[in-house]
Amino acid sequence: MRTDGYGSPTVVGGGAGELVLMWAGFPVLGAVAGWGLAAGAGFVADLPWFPVQGLFAGIDRLPEPHATIGAVALGALAGLVVALIGTAERLTVTVDVERVRLRRDDTEQSVPRRGVRAVFRDGKDLVVLGAADEELTRERSDLDAGRLEAAFRQHGWPWAAQDPHREAFRRWVPELPGLPVGADALLRARQRAVDRDKGDDARELRAELARLGVVVRDDRKRQYWRLSAVAPPPGPNPLSPGPGPNPLSPGAGTVAPPAGPGPDGGPARSTDQD
Fold this sequence. Notes:
Helix content is 36%, strand content 19%.
């Protein structure tokens, strides 16, 4: 955490040490793993129960030292790719008395202080609630909770120890009543995105649900939801029977008897005059 002075923004991020660990440590670990793969390929290829023996047998047949050099280089390259992805996924939080800015890769989100009701950590998620108890932002990171709390409290933000509405969440089940019209379809689509690890789709569908006043949190690929104060009235219950006749109303369930013959034996005539 970095503070430039009284009243200046406070920056909470991974810091330079984290970058050094990723860009130096991951390539080294990858290179060591590559060397171990080349050195142990022959031993693994002789294990009858081990899967993909053909791969290890092929590595073992490669000439030395080319096999070891190639495996070490590929391992180091894989470590660099992991470091690149980790750098892009790092979240940096900048807090001052007027707003909080959350930056990840090339994307930055700004949330004004005015109207914020609570800020808290939900697992690894940093959550900011608005005046209508809607989620203004939810961002996942490995940032230290104590550093985040200190930064927000220093600038007068309403930090909470936990989600004040945690008990209001209900596990989503298809066609469960109580949701606004259209929310169930969005939750179905989002569940598919969560199951397939499509983070961008899940994030986009979370935003669509927020427009309907539905707040969503995830727990091990399960969705839990609650309504904010901006949610419209719930839609009809798809599990309840449709409207029917009132059994207590006069004439309900009765059938009018057929008209009898007229005075002259012919068909009955209407009493209405032309």
